[in-house]
Each structure stands twice: as structure tokens, then as C-alpha cells.
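2024-03-11 09:14:02 DEBUG pipeline.ingest accepted 1 chain
2024-03-11 09:14:02 DEBUG pipeline.ingest length=172
2024-03-11 09:14:03 DEBUG pipeline.predict start
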Amino acid sequence: MQVSDAIMNRRSIRKFTKKETPEDILKEILEAGIWAPSGSNAQPWRCILVRNSIDKIKMFSPGLFGDPSVLIVICSDRAKAEDEQGRGLGIDPVVFIDIGAAAQNMMLQACELGLGSCPVRSFNQKALQALLDLPDDIVPELILALGYPDEKPQAPPRRSLEDTVCYERCGR
């Protein structure tokens, strides 16, 4: 699959089959996340792979639909981000861009491997942090629901280049 194919074909999947996702496939997906760019190459993320607590996580995650076979909880490593990106100045917002880049890499890799994914941000961070026994400086930011798709949604409409891109300057 070409990168452009993965970009055009990736959809947010909310219905999954019961088929389990093999470990070797998950490692490929996680590896894709590791290769995402990050500010100062800080790589200020931690990923928690969840298979057994999905139903518990659903109790405080209104945006988590269907029955994915696995979740990847992408967390900010606040201490690492502050040390390497903020240089002691507090958390730099670039950490959230870095996490988004890692998530996008993982979703595109999942698409290439025949899996569906859906990013989920609507969840209670404190509850998830407690359930996963995370220290204070490891904060869950995004959940990727993964599994074999049991639906094939149509692509939603996209705005045109003319509607979204300005060249050199953007007039009023």
C-alpha cells in the first residue's frame, strides 16, 4: 500500500469483528508511532497497550464505541517533555502535536495492515490514569481503538484546496 492510499482509505472505525489482533501486528503499529517526529526529538510519549480492561475504560469514555480488540493509550510524559522541550519552563504545547503525529503514524500503519482504528479523546483522564496505575507525570491524552473492521464507512466530504490553502498571503 502506498502512503497516499493509507491516507485516503483510513477511516474512523467504530465497529470491529471479534478477531484478535496478533502481537507482531501490534508491534509494527507501535513501532510506526516511535518513528513519528517530535520537537527536539524528545519523544515525550508513553503507550499503554490494553486488552483486558477495555470494558472498564468504556465506563468513563463516552467516545469509545464498539468492541475493539485492543486499545493503545497514548500518554504525555510530562517530566520528559518539560526537561527536553520546555527546558524547565513548564509543559510546551508541542507535546500534543508530537502525540498527534505518533497517533497518525500508528493509524496509517494499522490501515496498511488491514486494521481499523479510531482516535478517542472523550474520556476521564484522572479515571484512566488511576485505572492504569500511572504516575502523576504520565498523563493519558488519546486512546486509539484498534481491531479488524466490521464496517466500511464512506469517506466524508473534504473541503477543496481552494477553500483551505492560501499562497504567500491570505487576504481578507
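2024-03-11 09:14:41 DEBUG pipeline.report The helical segments are 3-9, 23-34, 54-58, 78-86, 94-112, 125-131, 161-164.
2024-03-11 09:14:41 DEBUG pipeline.predict end
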